[in-house]
Structure formats: structure tokens, C-alpha cells
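Mods, move this if it's the wrong board.
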Amino acid sequence: MHSTLQRRLAAGQTVVTGEIAPPKGAARAHLETLATNLRNYVDAVNLTDNQRGIARMSSLGGSVIVQQLGIEPIMQMTCQHRNRIALQADALSASALGVRNLLAMTGDHPRIGDHPEAKNVLDLNSFQLIRMLRTLRDQASFQSGTPLKEAPRFFIGSVANPNVERAARLEKKIEAGAEFVQTQLIFDVNRFRQWMADARAAGLHQQAYILVGVMILRRPNSAIYLRDHLPGTLMPDAVIERMQRAADSEAEGIALAAELVTELLSIEGVAGVHLMSVDWTRAIPRVVERAGLLPRPPAPASDEDNYQR
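Not the wrong board. C-alpha cells:
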């Protein structure tokens, strides 16, 4: 059975995804509140995997909680903290628990997080993780060659950074087996247009669904921090100046994000947007509404639904 996200993309719907960081604790109530507030505004929710090297509830655990709420999760999987045995175990567990969307990433080194003394594993990189997930699914085999008793089912995604990478790097991830892509945050639209032109020239938009990352800024300092401390970010001076001039920086951040969403979705080959924030998840519905992306279209019927009819 295909994930709802995959069916939406295959049907040509403009997809909207959002992002939530699982809690730094064992309570699920706050995560449930954040996810519930995104219901009817996004088509799927990413659960980050120890983002920035900071220990949290696992992406797998958070994904299952969100799934139990009837909201489709995208489970991020990073390579920095687990070896190939643990990564395969998590992928199989996700499939068994009904989590159908996996996003393969290299992840962040623990030295930048809250456990700088933690050993960096990095047994695989993101390209190798994608190939391993395809082997599990398509060949019903562990990477070692040991056969599986039952193959998992999932939709495999990866990430790309058009700010600093060539489209050729995305091509290699698609060759490895990525079926959808979420980009890092985009503020330099002209740079992204050129990257998409290169991607279209190589036919990449026809081989994988491309979702563009949009970060919702809350304060001028947020833009400055991203420029100075998040590697691979292109932050135009005009964005910082606009946030600094604003009488209400939160309202300006919402307006800016909505404008970016509209402009990015007008670019040929873009299949949707991925909305991110820093501890401001409740801003995501406001951006979706302001960008004119409501109501969300109903999901196409699944193969099982058609069979039942």
C-alpha cells in the first residue's frame, strides 16, 4: 500500500508538509498538541531525528504517536548516531508500525549538540542509507544479503541543499533510490531558480518529487542566526533588513514565508513545499492559509480502498 503522501504526489496535488521536533522528554502531550494543530493544514508531518545533535524522543517514536492521531508522519533517519544494523532495525519497525514515509539524511555531528562527548558513528552516509532502504524494500534483503521473511513498505525520501550543491548531487541520490526530496530552507529564490533549471534539464523533476523548504522567521535575530550559524544557508541582506524594519516581526515573518511559498510553487518542477520553524510550529497554519493553500484537497483513494469498493 502506498503512503498517502505518495498518492497525493502521484496524483499531481501540490503537497504541503510541516516539521516538528519530538520532545526532550517522555511526555507525549505537547507533541500531540503540536501535531493536532497542523491537522487540515499540512498533508504530512516530518519528525526530526536528534536534529542539531541534540537528544530527544526518537523520530520513530514521534512518528508512531503522530500516526495514532490520524496524521501522516515522515520519519527522518540520520546516519550519525546509529550503525547499519540499528538503521535497518528502525526501518523494519517503522514499516511494521505503519509508518510509510522515510527521509534519509546524514545528520548532525554530536559535537555540536548537548552530548559533545558522544561517539560519532556514521557507519553509512545518506547515499548508502537510501540504497540500503531500497534493498530492504525491493529485494527483501538485509544489506548483508540475508533474506527478509517479509519486505517492508515505505516511500523513500532524501534532502538536497540548492544553496550550495549542484543538481548533479541530487541526481546521484535519485540514482541511489530517492523517490522524493525535501530541500533545505530557501531564501535566495534566484539561486533556487537556477538550480531547478539544472534539475529540469537533467529530468530530475520527473524522477523524484521535489518539495522546497521554507523557514518561517519570527524575529530579525532568527535571520541573522541562520546566516551566521547554519552552514549552507544563503540569507539575502534584503530579508534581514525587511525583518528589522517591521513593526511586527512575527506578522512580517508570516507574510514573507507566504510570499516565498507562492513564488517557489510557481517554478516548474516544484511538487510542493516543506514548512519549517524554530519553536514556532503554530505559525505553519497561518502561512498555509495566507498562501491560499486551503482547503487541502482530499487524498486520492488507496489501492485497498478501491479493492474494498
